[in-house]
Amino acid sequence: MRIAAALLRWYDGAKRDLPWRRETSAYRTLVSEAMAQQTTLAVVVPYFQRFLARFPTLQALAEAPDEEVMAHWSGLGYYARARNLRRAALAAVSEHGGALPRTEEALRRLPGVGPYTAAAVASIAFGARTFALDGNGARVLARLFAVEDSIDRAATRTRLRALGTAEVPADRPGDFNQAVMELGALVCTPRRPRCQACPVAPACAGRARGLTVDLPRRAPKPARPVVRVACALVTDGARLLL
Ligand code: SF4
Predict the structure, then answer these.
(1) CA 103, 105, 110, 111 torsion-angle sign
(2) Which of 15, 60, 96, 129 has its CB 3.0 to 4.6 Å from that of 55, i.e. a possible disulfide?
(3) Residues near 140 by beta carbon (within 8 Å), at least 6 away in sequence
(4) pLDDT 10s digits, 5-48
(5) What CA–CA distance (Å, rounded) separates 134 from 80?
(6) Confidence class of residue 231 from pLDDT cuts 50, 70 and 90?
(7) Could you tell me the distance, in angstroms and rounded to a whole number, from the CA of residue 197 to the centre of ligand 1?
(8) pLDDT > 90? residue 232
């Protein structure tokens, strides 16, 4: 648990002040995780505050008209997230007595809740000892354990999840997951990891082997197909045939 202890000590001093960390609940965690997918936190925070002011509970979200939910998401993009969030609230109300289910497996059955979000909510809100593996977490773990296989492979992600889960401490699983996310966002960044400021640098196998900038490895992108097309523009005075 050397990694967890060092990481949590750093997280307690370095974590950013975010509205869903000030006051926590399973619902707030679910909304924040849905909003933060593919979106920077600076953009998410005001949306999160407006959304929670209008839909403070799962029930309020489930009872709201679809158009109003979409209006509060307008500008955040990836609108399927908003539709799924409302559908998840409806399912929680109709199937789970108005609360989010507490296990990772049951959370995964909610609309739009994938493995990462289910693990994040289960660990942060319900204390489940599980690892939430997203792109940030995969990068950090691939470096920390010098995993050289492509993180695009399902087998590599399974391995990374197992490595991460083995480090999750029983007493603070949610904080551990948030600490990994925070480390990936602030220190172990994609291009230039700041290893000199990293709390887990002494335990980092990637750093010890000089691999930090080479990891994580990705599968080569397939070559872009070249498609040749022909088109004609036929004019006849002011008339145009396309
Ligand atoms: Fe990432 Fe560097 Fe820390 Fe290793 S030492 S986890 S590469 S920031």
Answers:
(1) positive
(2) 60
(3) 180, 183, 184, 188
(4) 999 999 999 999 999 999 999 999 999 999 999 899 999 999 99
(5) 19
(6) confident
(7) 9
(8) no
In this prediction, residue 166 carries a pLDDT of 97
Mutational pocket test of ligand 1: of 189, 204, 215, the residue with most ligand atoms within 8 Å of the beta carbon: 204
Task: Decide if 4 contacts 167 (C-beta within 8 A).
Answer: yes
For ligand 1, whether the C-beta of 76 sits within 6 Å is no
Instruction: For helices 135-144 and 154-167, give the axis angle rounded to 10 degrees.
Output: 80
Active site residue 33: yes
| CA 88/CA 109 separation, integer angstroms | 9
What is the CA(137)–ligand 1 centre distance, in A? 12
Q: Which residue blocks in the chain are alpha helix, DSSP H?
A: 2-14, 19-22, 26-36, 41-54, 58-63, 66-73, 80-95, 104-108, 115-126, 135-144, 154-167, 173-186, 205-208
From 23, 33, 104, 105, the catalytic residue: 33
State phi, psi for 133 to the nearest 5 degrees: -100, 110
Instruction: Return the ligand 1 atom nearest residue 194 CA.
Output: 8
Atom index in ligand 1 nearest the CA of residue 197 equals 8
Ligand 1 site, residue 211, Cβ cutoff 6 A: no
Rounded to the nearest angstrom, the distance between the alpha carbon of 5 and the centre of ligand 1 is 16
Single out the residue of 128, 145, 156 nearest to residue 218, CA to CA.
156
The answer to whether the beta carbons of residues 88 and 30 sit under 8 Å apart is yes
